[in-house]
Design a protein that fits this description.
alpha/beta; TIM Barrel; two-stranded antiparallel sheet; 11 strands; globular
């Protein structure tokens, strides 16, 4: 999740080879992975985050377990905790959150629902945005704030070390090198295992990587908004995980010009699946470094999203979508 005020880069068209586009065989329909455990998220395959953390490519974004407007407690906290447990039951082992979600509510609910955590669960959280009111998402990536935010997340999540800590967004008032330098110090102190960045350009990613090893990027990316195509290309080339936020948005101006959303809808109807499932299948096929993190407050929608891990689009279908 990012602020609506973030500057987005011009959409750059690039070839499938540059993105590591997967060529996948057709399957007649969606369904659970053919595994004794019946955990359908496993059908999406696994990505080795940072070279040492295996995560399933179908993750879960825990932004919408909070109240309306990503503010306060959800209407039914018990149902939100049930949703988080259901995600794990379905085989999801990458859970993305942030201290700004609520604020603090999403992290707290994850602790309440899942602690003691499953051994293979990877919790990714973020710092660098603050929420003085429901309507505001303010930047604060000062080193002292990032340290306070990371340590507060450790306490809320009841963790000794955060597996993936991400800068929520570069702060226009703070040199990016200062922000990343502090994350590097927290990593050396053992409070962070891996460092990620979010809402960055290619140049910002390059600078961040010159200071600390960056294992993931979280930018807005979906079939209708591909303005981070150039960033995805860098991630694909260098084996960096790319976590698309707003992965299900589809009625964007760019898509209407290209017709991608319309074609996706046609394919979904032909397959007898939802456009959301088709969009997730497209993301999984787009590049092997993409780890979708769709979020929802509904268990039914969660199950529907995770079922998309088993869908394979044909090369012809991918070509039609564009």
């Amino acid at each position: 999740m990012g602020s609506a005020t973030f500057t987005r880069r011009r959409f750059l068209q690039s070839g499938a080879a540059a993105l590591g586009l997967a060529t996948l065989e057709a399957t007649p329909a969606l369904g659970r992975a053919a595994e004794p455990s019946g955990r359908p998220a496993r059908a999406a395959g696994t990505f080795l985050l940072g070279g040492d953390l295996p995560v399933r490519r179908m993750g879960f974004g825990a932004m919408r377990v909070t109240g309306p407007g990503i503010w306060g407690d959800p209407p039914d906290p018990a149902e939100a905790r049930k949703l988080l447990r259901r995600a794990v039951d379905l085989g999801v082992n990458l859970m993305d959150t942030a201290d700004a979600y609520g604020p603090e509510v999403s992290e707290r609910l994850i602790w309440e629902a899942l602690h003691p955590y499953p051994k293979d669960l990877v919790i990714a959280t973020k710092g660098g945005l603050t929420r003085p009111t429901r309507e505001r998402w303010d930047h604060d990536a000062r080193p002292e704030h990032l340290r306070q935010a990371c340590e507060a997340s450790l306490r809320r999540l009841r963790l000794e070390r955060i597996d993936l800590y991400q800068l929520h967004a570069p702060d226009p008032k703070v040199p990016l090198a200062d922000s990343m330098g502090e994350l590097g110090r927290l990593q050396r102190e053992g409070k962070i295992r891996h460092v990620g960045v979010s809402n960055v350009s290619v140049d910002e990613l390059r600078l961040a990587r010159s200071i600390v090893k960056v294992v993931s990027v979280q930018n807005r990316y979906n079939i209708g908004d591909r303005r981070s195509e150039d960033v995805l290309g860098v991630c694909a080339a260098d084996g960096i995980a790319f976590l698309p936020w707003a992965p299900l948005a589809g009625r964007e101006r760019e898509a209407k010009r290209s017709g991608s959303v319309e074609v996706l809808g046609q394919l979904a109807r032909q397959r007898g699946i939802t456009e959301t499932q088709a969009a997730l299948a497209w993301l999984l096929a787009r590049s092997p470094v993409i780890l979708p993190i769709p979020g929802t407050s509904s268990i039914a929608h969660l199950e529907e999203n995770v079922a998309a891990a088993a869908l394979r689009l044909t090369p012809e279908e991918l070509k039609r979508i564009g």
